[in-house]
Every structure is written in C-alpha cells, then in structure tokens.
Amino acid sequence: MSKKGKGERTRERILEAAAEEFASRGFYETKTIDILSKVGLTQPALYKHFPNKQSIYCELVDGLHVKFRRLIETARLGIGLTDDDVSAGAKEAVIHVFNLLFENPNVTRIAFFMDQNAENLKLELVKLIQKNIQSEQEMGYIRSDISAEIAAVCLVGMIERLTLEFLLPGKKSPESLADDVFGIFAPAMINKGSEPNPIDIIKHLE
Amino acid sequence: MSKKGKGERTRERILEAAAEEFASRGFYETKTIDILSKVGLTQPALYKHFPNKQSIYCELVDGLHVKFRRLIETARLGIGLTDDDVSAGAKEAVIHVFNLLFENPNVTRIAFFMDQNAENLKLELVKLIQKNIQSEQEMGYIRSDISAEIAAVCLVGMIERLTLEFLLPGKKSPESLADDVFGIFAPAMINKGSEPNPIDIIKHLE
Amino acid sequence: MSKKGKGERTRERILEAAAEEFASRGFYETKTIDILSKVGLTQPALYKHFPNKQSIYCELVDGLHVKFRRLIETARLGIGLTDDDVSAGAKEAVIHVFNLLFENPNVTRIAFFMDQNAENLKLELVKLIQKNIQSEQEMGYIRSDISAEIAAVCLVGMIERLTLEFLLPGKKSPESLADDVFGIFAPAMINKGSEPNPIDIIKHLE
Amino acid sequence: MSKKGKGERTRERILEAAAEEFASRGFYETKTIDILSKVGLTQPALYKHFPNKQSIYCELVDGLHVKFRRLIETARLGIGLTDDDVSAGAKEAVIHVFNLLFENPNVTRIAFFMDQNAENLKLELVKLIQKNIQSEQEMGYIRSDISAEIAAVCLVGMIERLTLEFLLPGKKSPESLADDVFGIFAPAMINKGSEPNPIDIIKHLE
DNA sequence: TATGAATGAGGTTTCATTCAT
DNA sequence: GATGAATGAAACCTCATTCAT
C-alpha cells in the first residue's frame, strides 16, 4: 500500500544510519558493519543499494552541496533590490542558509564541516556575500573603509561557528541565529558618523 | 657542532613530513609509507622514533593544543586592565592567536581544523572571550544588548575563517588580520545610538 | 498442445542460456544473474529448477559426455569388420563424432574443450582408435612401424583442432572434415614403399 | 653472497607455486592462500611482489606467450632453405616447440591449454606452418591435393595432444615426439606415385 | 642507526543461495 | 511459477607493525 517499495525504504534507512555514523565517527572510523547493524541488515544488503561505502558518503555530501549551490544561485538572482529589501533580503538569505543546514544536522556535519570539499562551498558563499556587500558599498549604504572580501569571510565564519555551537545542537533556531548574526554584522557595517557619500545618494534617487 | 644527535634530527624530519601529509590528505589517507618516503626512510625507522602512527599525529596535535591552552591561560591572567589596555589587549591577544596559528600552518590545519578535539579548544577560546566581553559590558564600554556568548562565538568564527583563507595561505599577516577582525568586531560592539551609561562615561574619562 | 509444461520450457531456456554463457565466459566468470537476465528471470526461479549453479553446468557437460561415451561404445561393438568396412567404418565413426560435437556447439565448447574431465573422454576415444589401428596393423593393412597409440593420439588431436577451427564456427561440415582427416591420416598409415607383409596380402585378397 | 636477493627468490617461489596451483586447479579454484601456504608465506608477502592474483597468472602466461611468439618469429625468418633443409628444418622447428612446451610443464598447461588466449597463439602457429606447406607444395615436394590450411591445423592438433599425453607427463622427449609427428605427417604429405610437377623442378633448379 | 622481508588483523566486496510473499 | 529482499560465507587486499640482520 505504501508508495515506496521496501527496497527504497531500506535504502533510505541505510543513508540515515550512515549519516549518523559518518557524522559522529568520520568516514574512516565508520565501518560498513556499523551502519548495517544500526539498520539491522547484513553486508550484501548494503551493496544491493550502493556500489560501495564511498558512494553512500558521496550521496549524502553531494545532496547537501547541490542544495547549497542552488540556494546560492537563487540568492544571486535575487540581487538588486530596493532599500529595505537589501538588508531584509540579506537576513532572509542567511535564514535560508541556516534552514538548510538545520534540515539534516548529521548531513550538515559531514558535508559542511568534515568534507574537504566544503571549503569550496564556503568560498562560493563568500563570493556571493562579497558581491552584495560591494553593491551596497557603492550605494553608500554601508562603510566603504572595510574590504568587502574580509567582511564576507567574517560573516561566513560567524555563520559556520554559530551553526556548530547553536544550530546543530538545537540550541537556537535559524531565525534567531540570523538575528544574532545581523545584530553583530549590521552595526559593524553601518556608515556611522560619516555623511553618506553624496554621489551615492544621487545614484540611489534615480 | 649541532646539539641534536642524528636520531633527534631524523625524528623531527619525520614529524615535519607527517605534518605535511596529514595536513593535505588527512590522517587516514596518509600512509606511513608516504611519510617515510618523503623523508627517505623505511618503515622500521619510524618505529624507532615513535611507538605508532597515531603517536606522531598526537604529538603534532598536542603540541599546538598545549601552546594554545597556554596562550588562553596567559590571556586569562591578563584580564582586568585599564580601558585602553582592554581593547588594545584584546587585539594583542588576537594577534598572539594568529601568530601561534601561523607558526606552523600544517600543524594548524591538523590540530585546529581537522582534529575533532579542536572544537574543545575553540570552546575554551570562546569562554575566555565571552568573559572579557562580559566584563566590558558590565563596565559599559560596549553594548549590553548583545549576548556575550554569541559575540564571542562570532569572533572565534571570524578568526577561524580568516585563518583558513588568509593566514595559512600566507596572504595576510597576523597583525593585519587582527586589524581586520577588530575593524568589524569593535564597531559592532560599540555603544553607539543609545545614551552611554553615565557611570561608564565617568570611568572612561579617567 | 505442447507436451512440455511451462516449467519444463523455462528449465530448458535456462540450460540454453547457461550453455551460451559458460561457453563464452567459462564457469566462474558466468554469474547466475547473467544467465537469468538472459532468460528474463530472477534468481529464485533458477533454484526452482536446479539445486545450484554447478548442477546446470553438470547437466550440460554430462549430457554430452554420456552421448559421447555411448558413441564410443557403439563404435567398439562395431569392431571387426571386413576390409572395406574397416576404413569406411572408421570414417563413418569420425563423422559420428563430428556430428555429435556439432549438435550443440556451446555445449561442445564446454564439455569437450573447457571441462577438465574432457581429457578422460579423449583418452577413451584414443583407446578405441588405438585398438582399431592395432587390429589393422595385425592384419597388415597398415604400417606396423608406427605406434598405434601415437597414431591414435594424433588422430584425436586432429579431430579436436579441426573441430575448434572449422566445425564449431560452422566453416565446414562433419562429412567434409572427416574427409580432411582421412585425407591426411589414411595416406600416413598406408603400407607404401615397403614390401607388404605376404600374409597380410593373402588376408587382403580374401 | 647469492646474486639474487631474498626478495627476488621469494618472488620466484611464489611464481612457481602459483604455476603448480593454477595448473592443477585452474585460476579460480586457486586461492591466494593455497599458493602462499605452499611457499610458507602469508598474504601480504604476495602483495609485496605482485599487485594482485591476476598479475601472477598473467606473468606466467605472458612469459610463455612471448617466448612462443619469438619462436614462431624465428622460424618464420628461417624460411626458404634448400631441399633437405626444408624437412629437416621443419622437424627442427617442431623440436623447438616441444622443447619450449617442456621447459615448464605447469606453465605450459596454463598458458597453452587453459588460457583462453592460447587459441590465438595456436592460430599463429597454424599460419606459419601453413605458409611453409604452401611453399613446399609450390615446389612440388609435397602433395598439392591437400589444403595447406587443413594440414597445418592437423599438425598443430597432433602437437597439442602429444604434448598433453606424452610430453607434459614426461613420457616422451621432445625429439622423440618430433619423430612421431613426422612419422605420421611426412608420409601423409609425400607426393607418392605421381611424378613431381616439372615446372616445380625447373623453379627449383634456378 | 637503518633495512629487507615478513606478518596479524581486519575491512570491503562479491558471490551463490534462500525466505516470505 | 515467479519475485523482492535478504543472507552466509569467503575471497582479496591493505594496512600498521615487527623481526632478524
């Protein structure tokens, strides 16, 4: 009666168990038998569903990486909004990031923190944020005396560590963490005492 | 002339090669033979100097962890200075951290970024910073509407990522990075729009 | 209308597919699933019809081996004929052999060329031929300066290789190959330059 | 003191044991542990010397195949001799073949009788012999009413079976077997009653 | 001090084979 | 009669690690 065949469900149970094991022990210390005994299966069952241990790992990692890249892409396309939307949109984007990372904490641990390739992912995120910051700097909304790259890198660093210490353990919600991040990041970026760059204002009025 | 015997030198060459390999491939993908062929030795030589592969890894990791904890301890003891010292001291402390992380990039990669235990280390750093922030919040020097813990976590996150992207690749110096960090973190913490706490002002004027 | 039930037909399709696979890949490189996918069945179906993989192989091999031994037995009983019959009968026998080997080329490949037990079969054939040759040698019809055993072995060798190179690929018919074999073997056996044994001549004139 | 290092000798002992096992059980029924227990070693020792089980097999097979092809090549270059040399040379060549096959009976069993690729080898031998026969047919030395190809195939068939039944078990020497082969093959080929073709004679006198 | 040669131990993987439906 | 899903068993291979020199 169930839409999914038993095989499909088994496959998913393997993936889930693998995620738990990989997240807590790492790839190498996770033995296939650890995964299987968790699911209550024996070795050949695993190889009915996956060609090898590595492929389970990859499926988990790639899954998140794809979603993550898609999120970045979506955010990139959303660039170029009006005033309030800009900062509101930024926070919204960060919430999306936290949401995604919170979807499956085990997978996030693996794909976003343990996997070597995660660095590339973070670099892409940095690039996206950097571009946004630069736009806003050109518009004079935020300080221009700070390197957009440095700022972006810092923002990503904050997101990372907040994810590890508050999001994954379930201590804080994505929204709340986004507030926290911008509670620090926004004030740091604000064009405080200095007059806004007149040219930027003109640009903005057009 | 050299104080160190040949054996001691060999031991160090092994450690160094191991650091390179561990840093680039990780513990499990680094085979003892990879390390040895890099040094031009054969397997038994390794076991003359170390009880096993794990011990090489531990020696590298523990070395940095000890130094790191010592740094934190020193910083902790240095708490409770006068105003200028406070922020100057904070930046100084961050420089020390960057300096330590820059001492041996390979080891840093291993002990500070790959090793599971690094989380504890970072947690200790967070605690230290959190305490400092709390002190300053109590003194009214900085915003009190931000959780000291969150702020500390964010600061550590920034340090981490800046280390990975600028310090380890040699793109920026410890001092410059400390400037960058405080260029963002300090303004974010400043008690701006709100009326400053009168008591704090008095303190500050002294 | 068909005498055979569906099960029986399935059984035969399995045998046939197995013969193809065994013949082209050998026993070990043929996986049960290869056979089954060829027939469009799944694994349990196989075990409804055969106790195991080996038994399929045996059934194929034994089938030919039994037929072959029966052929040899028939030939053995037919020994002791008059002159013309002798050589004519010999060629007839070889045609029978080729016919049998041509009946199912795949099975022949397996049972006559790949199976270790085939050696015994060939040995039996050698023994039979050797006896025939000896009889004829005693009768003086053919050279006595050649070991009957050697001659028999050679004849079997020819049959084997001709089978592989011409019969199984369908390049030559059993009859034509029998002609070829005797085109070489008969002249080789003939009592040519030497004076024929007078006694033999007398026998021959009868 | 010995020229060969211990490792090299071990390698050879493995090869030798493998040849025995492969020859008697076949590739798949030979477990690496069978080979190793014969040599008194454990698994890793094998993999110090060979990348895998297959490579041991290949080294054995390729070794003989190369020698065999070299032999054929040498024979090919030796074509085109005078009268007596022709048949003498042919026998000589067959002796070389038998000698090679006798050098290492186990390897011969594997590379010349069990290995699938052996068929190609035999085909090459057939081609060589066929050419020689054709030359002699053109010169009128031997019967032209027999297909050179058929004759060559038969000759190879004889060699094969004689090898299996007499050479490998050590029942007959290469020379003796060559005599046997030509005792049958030469008379079969001889241009008995018929006058030699005049044109061929002229050709031969040139 | 360093090495050539060997090992113990254990993991991944691959089959043929079966159970419950 | 046939199947989806699972298993038992065993082979290959790869390590870190050690022995004897």
Number of structural domains of chain A: 2
Q: What percent of residues of chain A are in strands?
A: under 5%
String of helices and strands of chain A: HHHHHHHHHH
Biggest interface found: C-D, 36 and 36 residues
Low-confidence stretches of chain A are 193-206
Q: What integer is the average pLDDT of chain A?
A: 88
CATH class of the largest domain in chain A: Mainly Alpha
In oligomeric terms, what are we looking at? homotetramer
Protein name (chains A, B, C, D): TetR/AcrR family transcriptional regulator
InterPro entries (chains A, B, C, D): Homeodomain-like_sf, HTH-type_Tx_Regulator, HTH_TetR, Tet_transcr_reg_TetR-rel_C_sf
Organism (chains A, B, C, D): Alicyclobacillus fastidiosus
Keywords (chains A, B, C, D): DNA-binding, Plasmid
